């Protein structure tokens, strides 16, 4: 919620996930109260299936918030269609 927490910063990533996961939806709930639409941006790739169990920055927040999800790619970077198809299939 915009504050540094040295206790959480000292934790390993997996320990952090258990601590931060439940509170990651709170900002959405607060914003949704005041705004009709809220954009939630992921912080990586939802196709990283090796991280799915511990990930809190991609699909978990969208699922918890029951938000519509859009898969976006930059066509100027090349390989955009392969990227989209591969992510969709994962």
Could you write a compact summary of the structure shown?
The protein has 90 residues and is an all-alpha fold. It has five helices and no strands. The longest helix has 10 residues, at 80-89.
Identify low-pLDDT runs: none
Radius of gyration: 15 Å
Helix content: 40-55%
Biggest beta sheet summary: none
Strand portion, in percent?
Answer: under 5%
Rounded average pLDDT: 81
Give the N-terminus to C-terminus distance in angstroms.
31 Å
Work out the helix count. Answer: 5
Based on helices, strands and strand pairing, what is the structural class? mainly alpha
SSE order, as H and E?
A: HHHHH
Strand count: 0
Specify the overall morphology. globular
Blueprint (SSEs and pairs):
Layout: H1 6-9, H2 13-20, H3 26-34, H4 59-65, H5 80-89
Question: What would you say this structure looks like, in words?
Answer:
With 90 residues, the chain is mainly alpha-helical. Helices cover 42% and strands 0% of the residues. It has helices spanning 6-9, 13-20, 26-34, 59-65, 80-89. It is globular, with a radius of gyration of 15 Å. The N and C termini lie far apart (31 Å).
